[in-house]
Amino acid sequence: MKLKSKLKQALGSLMEISGSSTDIFSGIDAAIAHGTDRTDTPVDDKYVHEILFLVSNSHGSITFLARRITRRLETATDVILALKTLLLLHRLLRGGDRYFEQDLRSLWSSGELRIDLGWSCNDCDRLSSFIIRYSELLKERVQWIINQSGKLEPVRPLGLEIQSCEENAIELVLHRLSKCQAFLDLTMECLPSKIWHSSRVTQVAMNIILRESFSVYVCFCEWIDILLNSFSKLEKPQRVLALDVVRKACNQTPKLDEYYKSLRTSMVGKSLDFPSVRVFTAEDVSAMDMASSEQLSPFHCKLETKISTVWVEFDDDGDSQSSSLFSFGGFEDHLLTSAGDDLITDQGESSTTTTTTITGSTSNYMQLL
Questions:
Q1: Strands, E assignment, the chain
Q2: CA-based diameter of the chain, in Å?
Q3: CA separation for the pair 234, 342 (Å, rounded)
Q4: 186 and 143 in contact (C-beta within 8 Å)?
Q5: Which residue did the predictor score with more confidence, 174 or 345?
Q6: Is 216 strand, coil or helix?
Q7: Which of 271, 143, 129 is nearest to 208 (CA)?
Q8: What pTM does this model have?
Q9: Which H or E element spans position 241?
Q10: Which one of 1.20.58.150, 1.10.10.60, 2.60.120.10, 3.40.50.720 gives the CATH number of domain 143-296?
Q11: What letter would DSSP give residue 349?
Q12: Half-sphere exposure of 111 toward its Cβ, with a 13 Å CA cutoff?
Protein backbone atom coordinates (compact mmCIF):
# COMPACT_ATOMS: atom_id res chain seq x y z
CA MET A 1 0.00 0.00 0.00
CA LYS A 2 2.81 2.36 0.86
CA LEU A 3 4.48 1.72 -2.50
CA LYS A 4 1.25 2.31 -4.38
CA SER A 5 0.70 5.55 -2.45
CA LYS A 6 4.19 6.79 -3.29
CA LEU A 7 3.72 5.94 -6.97
CA LYS A 8 0.45 7.86 -7.07
CA GLN A 9 2.08 10.81 -5.35
CA ALA A 10 5.01 10.81 -7.82
CA LEU A 11 2.67 10.48 -10.80
CA GLY A 12 0.55 13.33 -9.48
CA SER A 13 3.63 15.52 -9.13
CA LEU A 14 4.70 14.73 -12.69
CA MET A 15 1.24 15.55 -14.02
CA GLU A 16 1.22 18.78 -12.04
CA ILE A 17 4.66 19.74 -13.41
CA SER A 18 3.61 18.76 -16.92
CA GLY A 19 0.44 20.79 -16.63
CA SER A 20 2.37 23.71 -15.22
CA SER A 21 4.89 23.57 -18.09
CA THR A 22 2.06 23.42 -20.60
CA ASP A 23 0.48 26.48 -19.01
CA ILE A 24 3.80 28.33 -19.14
CA PHE A 25 4.36 27.45 -22.80
CA SER A 26 0.81 28.52 -23.63
CA GLY A 27 1.39 31.79 -21.78
CA ILE A 28 4.61 32.46 -23.72
CA ASP A 29 2.90 31.65 -27.02
CA ALA A 30 -0.02 33.94 -26.24
CA ALA A 31 2.26 36.81 -25.17
CA ILE A 32 4.25 36.54 -28.42
CA ALA A 33 1.06 36.51 -30.49
CA HIS A 34 -0.44 39.54 -28.72
CA GLY A 35 2.83 41.47 -28.69
CA THR A 36 3.51 40.99 -32.40
CA ASP A 37 0.17 41.60 -34.06
CA ARG A 38 -0.19 43.44 -37.39
CA THR A 39 -1.14 46.85 -35.97
CA ASP A 40 1.30 49.76 -36.15
CA THR A 41 1.66 50.02 -32.38
CA PRO A 42 4.85 49.37 -30.36
CA VAL A 43 5.24 46.14 -28.41
CA ASP A 44 3.42 46.59 -25.10
CA ASP A 45 5.64 46.45 -22.00
CA LYS A 46 3.31 43.99 -20.26
CA TYR A 47 4.00 41.29 -22.88
CA VAL A 48 7.76 41.76 -22.53
CA HIS A 49 7.55 41.48 -18.73
CA GLU A 50 5.18 38.51 -18.92
CA ILE A 51 7.52 36.55 -21.20
CA LEU A 52 10.56 37.30 -19.00
CA PHE A 53 8.61 36.26 -15.88
CA LEU A 54 7.39 32.99 -17.40
CA VAL A 55 10.84 32.06 -18.71
CA SER A 56 12.50 32.77 -15.36
CA ASN A 57 10.06 30.43 -13.59
CA SER A 58 10.40 27.43 -15.88
CA HIS A 59 13.66 25.71 -16.71
CA GLY A 60 13.88 24.98 -20.42
CA SER A 61 11.10 27.35 -21.45
CA ILE A 62 13.63 29.70 -23.05
CA THR A 63 14.21 27.04 -25.72
CA PHE A 64 10.48 27.09 -26.46
CA LEU A 65 10.64 30.90 -26.65
CA ALA A 66 13.57 30.82 -29.11
CA ARG A 67 11.78 28.33 -31.37
CA ARG A 68 8.56 30.36 -31.35
CA ILE A 69 10.39 33.58 -32.29
CA THR A 70 12.29 31.75 -35.04
CA ARG A 71 9.09 30.30 -36.47
CA ARG A 72 7.30 33.66 -36.37
CA LEU A 73 10.15 35.38 -38.25
CA GLU A 74 10.51 32.67 -40.89
CA THR A 75 6.79 32.47 -41.66
CA ALA A 76 6.02 36.20 -41.49
CA THR A 77 4.75 37.69 -44.74
CA ASP A 78 3.64 41.00 -43.25
CA VAL A 79 6.42 43.57 -42.77
CA ILE A 80 4.88 45.07 -39.61
CA LEU A 81 4.54 41.63 -38.01
CA ALA A 82 8.18 40.81 -38.83
CA LEU A 83 9.36 44.20 -37.56
CA LYS A 84 7.44 43.82 -34.28
CA THR A 85 8.87 40.31 -33.77
CA LEU A 86 12.41 41.69 -34.16
CA LEU A 87 11.53 44.54 -31.83
CA LEU A 88 10.19 42.06 -29.25
CA LEU A 89 13.46 40.11 -29.40
CA HIS A 90 15.43 43.33 -28.99
CA ARG A 91 13.31 44.34 -25.98
CA LEU A 92 13.83 40.91 -24.40
CA LEU A 93 17.60 41.19 -24.85
CA ARG A 94 17.55 44.56 -23.11
CA GLY A 95 15.17 43.51 -20.34
CA GLY A 96 16.50 40.06 -19.47
CA ASP A 97 19.15 39.36 -16.85
CA ARG A 98 22.64 38.03 -17.56
CA TYR A 99 21.53 34.39 -17.46
CA PHE A 100 18.72 35.09 -19.92
CA GLU A 101 21.20 36.80 -22.27
CA GLN A 102 23.65 33.92 -21.93
CA ASP A 103 21.01 31.25 -22.60
CA LEU A 104 19.61 33.12 -25.60
CA ARG A 105 23.13 33.56 -27.01
CA SER A 106 23.80 29.82 -26.59
CA LEU A 107 20.56 29.02 -28.41
CA TRP A 108 21.54 31.39 -31.23
CA SER A 109 24.99 29.74 -31.48
CA SER A 110 23.43 26.27 -31.61
CA GLY A 111 20.88 27.28 -34.25
CA GLU A 112 17.77 26.97 -32.06
CA LEU A 113 17.29 30.73 -32.37
CA ARG A 114 17.50 31.94 -35.97
CA ILE A 115 17.09 35.63 -36.70
CA ASP A 116 16.28 35.19 -40.38
CA LEU A 117 13.32 36.38 -42.43
CA GLY A 118 11.29 34.50 -44.99
CA TRP A 119 12.18 36.82 -47.87
CA SER A 120 15.31 38.20 -49.53
CA CYS A 121 16.36 41.79 -50.08
CA ASN A 122 16.35 41.68 -53.89
CA ASP A 123 12.77 42.75 -54.57
CA CYS A 124 11.87 44.57 -51.39
CA ASP A 125 10.66 48.05 -50.65
CA ARG A 126 12.62 50.32 -48.33
CA LEU A 127 10.89 49.12 -45.15
CA SER A 128 11.52 45.48 -45.97
CA SER A 129 15.16 46.32 -46.63
CA PHE A 130 15.31 48.10 -43.27
CA ILE A 131 13.85 45.04 -41.51
CA ILE A 132 16.47 42.78 -43.07
CA ARG A 133 19.26 45.17 -41.96
CA TYR A 134 17.69 45.24 -38.51
CA SER A 135 17.79 41.44 -38.33
CA GLU A 136 21.50 41.51 -39.24
CA LEU A 137 22.12 44.03 -36.47
CA LEU A 138 20.33 41.79 -33.95
CA LYS A 139 22.60 38.89 -34.90
CA GLU A 140 25.49 41.09 -33.79
CA ARG A 141 23.57 42.37 -30.76
CA VAL A 142 23.10 38.82 -29.41
CA GLN A 143 26.89 38.70 -29.01
CA TRP A 144 26.86 41.66 -26.59
CA ILE A 145 25.87 41.94 -22.94
CA ILE A 146 24.79 44.77 -20.68
CA ASN A 147 27.44 44.97 -17.94
CA GLN A 148 26.97 46.00 -14.31
CA SER A 149 27.47 49.67 -15.25
CA GLY A 150 24.57 49.45 -17.69
CA LYS A 151 26.84 49.73 -20.73
CA LEU A 152 26.89 47.46 -23.75
CA GLU A 153 29.97 45.29 -23.94
CA PRO A 154 30.96 42.53 -26.40
CA VAL A 155 31.25 39.06 -24.96
CA ARG A 156 34.83 38.18 -24.05
CA PRO A 157 36.22 35.72 -26.63
CA LEU A 158 37.54 32.34 -25.54
CA GLY A 159 41.33 31.97 -25.38
CA LEU A 160 42.27 35.29 -23.78
CA GLU A 161 42.51 33.66 -20.34
CA ILE A 162 45.63 31.69 -21.28
CA GLN A 163 47.68 34.80 -22.06
CA SER A 164 49.54 37.07 -19.67
CA CYS A 165 47.63 39.92 -18.03
CA GLU A 166 49.28 42.59 -20.20
CA GLU A 167 48.74 40.68 -23.46
CA ASN A 168 45.23 39.85 -22.34
CA ALA A 169 44.41 43.53 -21.78
CA ILE A 170 45.68 44.64 -25.20
CA GLU A 171 44.04 41.76 -27.05
CA LEU A 172 40.77 42.48 -25.25
CA VAL A 173 40.89 46.17 -26.22
CA LEU A 174 41.59 45.27 -29.86
CA HIS A 175 38.72 42.75 -29.83
CA ARG A 176 36.32 45.28 -28.34
CA LEU A 177 37.28 47.95 -30.86
CA SER A 178 36.75 45.53 -33.74
CA LYS A 179 33.30 44.58 -32.39
CA CYS A 180 32.38 48.25 -31.90
CA GLN A 181 33.24 49.02 -35.51
CA ALA A 182 31.19 46.04 -36.73
CA PHE A 183 28.22 47.16 -34.59
CA LEU A 184 28.41 50.75 -35.87
CA ASP A 185 28.67 49.58 -39.49
CA LEU A 186 25.46 47.54 -39.11
CA THR A 187 23.76 50.45 -37.34
CA MET A 188 24.47 52.81 -40.25
CA GLU A 189 22.79 50.37 -42.63
CA CYS A 190 19.55 50.65 -40.63
CA LEU A 191 18.04 53.71 -42.27
CA PRO A 192 14.33 53.50 -43.17
CA SER A 193 12.85 55.64 -45.92
CA LYS A 194 11.26 58.97 -44.96
CA ILE A 195 7.80 57.55 -45.63
CA TRP A 196 8.24 55.08 -42.78
CA HIS A 197 9.64 57.64 -40.31
CA SER A 198 6.04 58.27 -39.23
CA SER A 199 5.50 54.58 -38.39
CA ARG A 200 5.31 54.20 -34.62
CA VAL A 201 6.93 50.75 -34.65
CA THR A 202 9.78 52.05 -36.83
CA GLN A 203 10.30 55.02 -34.52
CA VAL A 204 10.56 52.79 -31.44
CA ALA A 205 12.94 50.39 -33.19
CA MET A 206 15.16 53.23 -34.45
CA ASN A 207 15.11 54.85 -31.02
CA ILE A 208 16.53 51.69 -29.44
CA ILE A 209 19.02 51.17 -32.28
CA LEU A 210 20.35 54.72 -31.99
CA ARG A 211 20.56 54.76 -28.18
CA GLU A 212 22.53 51.53 -28.20
CA SER A 213 24.80 52.87 -30.94
CA PHE A 214 25.51 55.93 -28.77
CA SER A 215 26.56 53.64 -25.93
CA VAL A 216 28.76 51.59 -28.26
CA TYR A 217 30.36 54.73 -29.73
CA VAL A 218 31.20 56.10 -26.26
CA CYS A 219 32.89 52.79 -25.39
CA PHE A 220 34.72 52.90 -28.73
CA CYS A 221 36.17 56.33 -27.86
CA GLU A 222 37.29 55.13 -24.42
CA TRP A 223 38.98 52.00 -25.77
CA ILE A 224 40.68 53.70 -28.71
CA ASP A 225 42.18 56.26 -26.31
CA ILE A 226 43.60 53.37 -24.28
CA LEU A 227 45.02 51.87 -27.47
CA LEU A 228 46.60 55.13 -28.65
CA ASN A 229 48.14 55.85 -25.23
CA SER A 230 49.79 52.41 -25.13
CA PHE A 231 50.75 52.34 -28.83
CA SER A 232 54.47 52.90 -28.18
CA LYS A 233 54.58 49.84 -25.89
CA LEU A 234 52.90 47.45 -28.31
CA GLU A 235 54.65 44.61 -30.07
CA LYS A 236 54.84 44.65 -33.87
CA PRO A 237 51.80 42.37 -34.53
CA GLN A 238 49.67 44.39 -32.12
CA ARG A 239 50.86 47.64 -33.72
CA VAL A 240 49.71 46.38 -37.12
CA LEU A 241 46.26 45.57 -35.70
CA ALA A 242 46.08 48.97 -34.01
CA LEU A 243 46.87 50.70 -37.30
CA ASP A 244 44.13 48.67 -39.00
CA VAL A 245 41.63 49.89 -36.40
CA VAL A 246 42.62 53.54 -36.95
CA ARG A 247 42.53 53.13 -40.73
CA LYS A 248 38.99 51.77 -40.49
CA ALA A 249 38.06 54.61 -38.13
CA CYS A 250 39.39 57.04 -40.74
CA ASN A 251 36.85 55.63 -43.19
CA GLN A 252 34.01 54.98 -40.73
CA THR A 253 33.82 58.06 -38.49
CA PRO A 254 32.99 60.59 -41.27
CA LYS A 255 30.12 58.30 -42.38
CA LEU A 256 28.90 57.92 -38.79
CA ASP A 257 28.94 61.70 -38.37
CA GLU A 258 26.82 62.13 -41.52
CA TYR A 259 24.47 59.32 -40.41
CA TYR A 260 23.79 60.99 -37.07
CA LYS A 261 23.35 64.39 -38.73
CA SER A 262 20.77 62.97 -41.14
CA LEU A 263 18.67 61.66 -38.22
CA ARG A 264 19.09 64.54 -35.74
CA THR A 265 16.27 66.63 -37.19
CA SER A 266 14.03 63.74 -38.20
CA MET A 267 11.05 62.54 -36.20
CA VAL A 268 13.11 59.52 -35.15
CA GLY A 269 15.93 61.45 -33.50
CA LYS A 270 14.39 64.68 -32.20
CA SER A 271 14.22 63.49 -28.59
CA LEU A 272 17.70 61.92 -28.55
CA ASP A 273 20.99 63.37 -27.32
CA PHE A 274 23.39 62.60 -30.16
CA PRO A 275 27.12 62.37 -29.33
CA SER A 276 29.74 64.51 -31.05
CA VAL A 277 31.65 62.24 -33.41
CA ARG A 278 35.45 62.39 -33.35
CA VAL A 279 36.46 62.14 -36.99
CA PHE A 280 39.76 60.40 -37.70
CA THR A 281 41.78 61.57 -40.70
CA ALA A 282 44.55 60.28 -42.94
CA GLU A 283 46.98 62.50 -40.99
CA ASP A 284 46.27 60.47 -37.83
CA VAL A 285 47.11 57.27 -39.68
CA SER A 286 50.30 58.78 -41.16
CA ALA A 287 51.48 59.99 -37.74
CA MET A 288 50.97 56.55 -36.20
CA ASP A 289 52.59 54.84 -39.18
CA MET A 290 55.64 57.10 -38.89
CA ALA A 291 55.90 56.53 -35.14
CA SER A 292 55.67 52.78 -35.71
CA SER A 293 58.42 52.87 -38.38
CA GLU A 294 60.76 54.83 -36.10
CA GLN A 295 60.26 52.40 -33.24
CA LEU A 296 60.91 49.40 -35.45
CA SER A 297 64.30 50.89 -36.54
CA PRO A 298 67.34 49.04 -35.04
CA PHE A 299 68.87 52.37 -33.95
CA HIS A 300 66.91 54.46 -31.50
CA CYS A 301 69.36 57.41 -31.55
CA LYS A 302 71.63 59.16 -34.05
CA LEU A 303 75.06 57.70 -34.65
CA GLU A 304 77.92 60.20 -35.21
CA THR A 305 81.38 59.52 -36.64
CA LYS A 306 84.43 61.48 -35.42
CA ILE A 307 87.62 61.66 -37.51
CA SER A 308 90.79 62.46 -35.58
CA THR A 309 93.45 64.66 -37.18
CA VAL A 310 96.18 63.99 -34.63
CA TRP A 311 99.56 62.75 -35.94
CA VAL A 312 102.43 61.19 -34.03
CA GLU A 313 106.14 61.93 -34.75
CA PHE A 314 108.88 59.59 -33.53
CA ASP A 315 112.55 60.69 -33.11
CA ASP A 316 115.27 58.39 -34.50
CA ASP A 317 117.55 58.28 -31.39
CA GLY A 318 118.54 54.62 -31.17
CA ASP A 319 116.66 52.57 -28.64
CA SER A 320 115.12 55.58 -26.98
CA GLN A 321 112.01 56.93 -28.61
CA SER A 322 110.29 60.18 -27.93
CA SER A 323 107.18 61.31 -29.61
CA SER A 324 105.42 64.56 -30.12
CA LEU A 325 101.78 65.06 -31.12
CA PHE A 326 100.53 67.33 -33.85
CA SER A 327 96.84 68.19 -33.59
CA PHE A 328 94.84 69.69 -36.43
CA GLY A 329 91.42 71.27 -36.16
CA GLY A 330 91.28 71.07 -32.33
CA PHE A 331 89.97 67.46 -32.19
CA GLU A 332 90.40 65.56 -28.94
CA ASP A 333 91.02 62.03 -30.24
CA HIS A 334 94.64 60.86 -30.67
CA LEU A 335 95.83 58.31 -33.17
CA LEU A 336 98.64 56.29 -31.67
CA THR A 337 100.81 54.16 -33.92
CA SER A 338 103.48 51.74 -32.92
CA ALA A 339 106.76 51.91 -34.85
CA GLY A 340 107.93 48.34 -34.49
CA ASP A 341 106.74 44.85 -33.79
CA ASP A 342 108.78 41.80 -32.90
CA LEU A 343 109.03 39.42 -35.82
CA ILE A 344 109.97 35.77 -35.30
CA THR A 345 112.51 34.61 -37.90
CA ASP A 346 112.70 31.10 -39.39
CA GLN A 347 115.80 30.36 -37.25
CA GLY A 348 113.92 31.15 -34.02
CA GLU A 349 115.76 34.49 -33.56
CA SER A 350 113.94 37.75 -33.06
CA SER A 351 114.69 40.90 -34.91
CA THR A 352 113.21 44.36 -34.40
CA THR A 353 112.03 46.44 -37.29
CA THR A 354 113.63 49.75 -37.82
CA THR A 355 111.60 52.68 -36.60
CA THR A 356 110.46 54.82 -39.42
CA THR A 357 110.81 58.48 -38.78
CA ILE A 358 108.23 60.77 -40.21
CA THR A 359 108.76 64.44 -40.14
CA GLY A 360 106.12 66.38 -38.36
CA SER A 361 105.70 69.06 -40.89
CA THR A 362 102.22 69.93 -41.95
CA SER A 363 103.07 69.73 -45.62
CA ASN A 364 104.32 66.12 -45.40
CA TYR A 365 101.21 65.15 -43.44
CA MET A 366 98.93 66.62 -46.06
CA GLN A 367 100.82 64.85 -48.83
CA LEU A 368 100.26 61.50 -47.11
CA LEU A 369 96.54 62.25 -46.91
A1: 144-146, 152-154, 310-314, 323-327, 342-344, 350-352
A2: 135
A3: 56
A4: no
A5: 174
A6: helix
A7: 271
A8: 0.74
A9: helix 236-264
A10: 1.20.58.150
A11: -
A12: 0
Q: Render pLDDT for 99-146 as a digit per residue (tens, 0 to 9).
A: 999 999 999 999 999 999 877 655 456 678 889 999 999 999 999 999
User: Which of the two residues, 151 and 217, has the higher pLDDT score?
Assistant: 217
Following DSSP, what letter does each residue of 161-190 receive, concatenated?
GGS-HHHHHHHHHHHHHHHHHHHHHHHHH-
Q: How far apart are the first and last CA of the chain?
A: 124
Give me the pLDDT at residue 266, please: 81
Residue (of 191, 98, 185) closest to 150 by Cα position: 98
C-alpha–C-alpha distance, residues 62 and 52, integer Å: 9
The residues, ordered by sequence, that sit 6+ positions from 263 with a Cβ below 8 Å of its Cβ are 191, 206, 210, 269, 274
CATH number of 16-122: 1.25.40.90
Helix, strand or coil, per DSSP, at residue 255: helix
